[in-house]
Every structure is written in structure tokens, then in C-alpha cells.
């Protein structure tokens, strides 16, 4: 039960941490030392971890609480009898300061084999550059801006010799200026490649969407008209009426006279209606206007 309570207390305490607590293995000791110094100075307690300081008992107590809160629980139990921040600071340094000697050779190895041409993008190379140089600086190794510029320019791909010479003649003084220029060039190259792949060289552009839609609309409208005039029932009825009208006016049938009695009676009625004289004086009994067919013809032959 006590272990569960201590675990809950430790988990609740993790939420209040300003930075990662010091691990028992000491793998994060170098970054922990830097974070602890910054936060102690921000809280006005930076002098508590300095030799021959004049910090008050209250300041030492606050610094001790802060340090113990940012170390692992098992590590805290090992230094439970230490009640001075300076003593705890030195004890942790003696225990984990060898991490500098372990980290520095690895960082030097990575720096030696760091090459710009081995990375797919400028962002990946820039991230690796800052990670390696930060590790070396934490271990006391000084890496200047000139070193970072030379490392980048001297590891270009062999096909980019002219580009590398242009960057050298640009006279960059800071590594960040060179990286900004490389990032801009990378984005422009990606845009140029996308434009080239969208339409190969020598090919004609696609028609505009407005012209294409107009052509489709015109084609569909012609098809609709053709369908109504020839394929639809209404078109066939109108066409047959036109043909019958043409035959009644004496233009002659295409396939000879029809032998159907029904059609013959219709044609006969059409012919009689065409010979009925117009009466311009008598008004129409249906609409009252003059110039229509006579009254009897209008009743007998209805024109639709």
C-alpha cells in the first residue's frame, strides 16, 4: 500500500516539473545540469550552487526542494541525508560528470562523418547539425560558425560543384544564413519539378474548363433536339403531321399513296379544308376575329 501511495505521489509530482527529472542512469545529466542552472537563476537561487556563497537559509531550503523535486525517486533516496544544495550539486557532479567523457567521443565521431549529401532534405541535415554541435558544446568542445559553414559547403555532392562555389562567393558569415538560402532553393526546386511533371515538355495544354463545358452542353442540346425530332413520340407525331400537310398541299408522298383507309380519309379532309374560301367579313364564332375559316369549316375541321 505504501508503494502505491509513493507511486501516486511521484506521478502527481511529475506534472509540476519544469523539466525532465534526472534519471538514475544519468543519461540526461548534461541537459539536466543546464536546465537546473537556468531555473535556479530565474528564481533568484543561482548563488546557492556556487562555492563560498552568501545565500540565506531560506534560499538554500528553496533550492534544495527544487533540486530534490527534479531527480528520480530512487536517486533521491540515495542522498536523503544531504540537506545543502551545494553539497547535493557536487555529489551529483562527481557521480555523473563522466558522462561528458562518454558523450564527447560519440559527438566527435558524428561530427567527423556528418555530410550534407547524405540527407534527403535540408531540414534533416540542419537538425542533425544542431544536435551534434549542442552535444559537443555541452562537453566543452567549441564549434564556431565558420566550422559549421565549412562542414556544410565541403560536403556537397560532386554534381553540385558550381552551386557550392556560388555559395562560397556569397560570403555567408553565419550558418543560419546559409541554411535559409538552401531551404529556399530546395522549395523552388520542388515547385519546378512539380510544374514539369504536371505537363511534359512539348505537350499541348488541356482545354479550358469553360470551353469544354460549352462544347459538352452544345453536344447534349443537339442530341436532345435530335431525340425530340426523330426518336421521341412527340417528334414522330409532329413529323407525320408535317408529311401529311405536305402531301395535302400537292408536294407528293415519298413512298407512294397510302392504302390505309384511315389515312386516306384524313388526307381527303385536309384537301377539302384547303379549298374552303376564307371569309374576311364574317367574324369567327369562337374568338370573334375576322380572317379565319368560315363558321362551318371551323366547326368541321379543327386545326390544332
Please tell me about this protein's structure.
63% of the residues lie in helices and 0% in strands. With 304 residues, the chain is an all-alpha fold. Among the domains are: 96 residues, no CATH class; 96 residues. α6 runs antiparallel to α7.
Beta-strand residue percentage = under 5%
Low-confidence stretches: 231-240, 242-259, 294-304
Global structural class? mainly alpha
Shape: elongated
Largest sheet: none
In percent, how helical is the residue content?
A: 55-70%
Radius of gyration: 49 Å
Mean of residue pLDDT values: 75
Total helix count? 14
End-to-end gap = 102 Å
Number of strands: 0
SSE string = HHHHHHHHHHHHHH
Organism: Prunus dulcis (Almond)
Biased composition (Polar residues): 257-266
Biased composition (Basic residues): 224-236
Region (Disordered): 196-304
Notable characteristics:
mainly alpha; disordered C terminus; 304 residues; 14 helices
Record the SSE blueprint.
Layout: H1 2-15, H2 29-42, H3 57-69, H4 73-78, H5 85-96, H6 99-112, H7 122-138, H8 145-153, H9 161-169, H10 175-198, H11 209-231, H12 233-248, H13 261-274, H14 295-300
Helix pairs in contact: 6-7, 11-12, 12-13
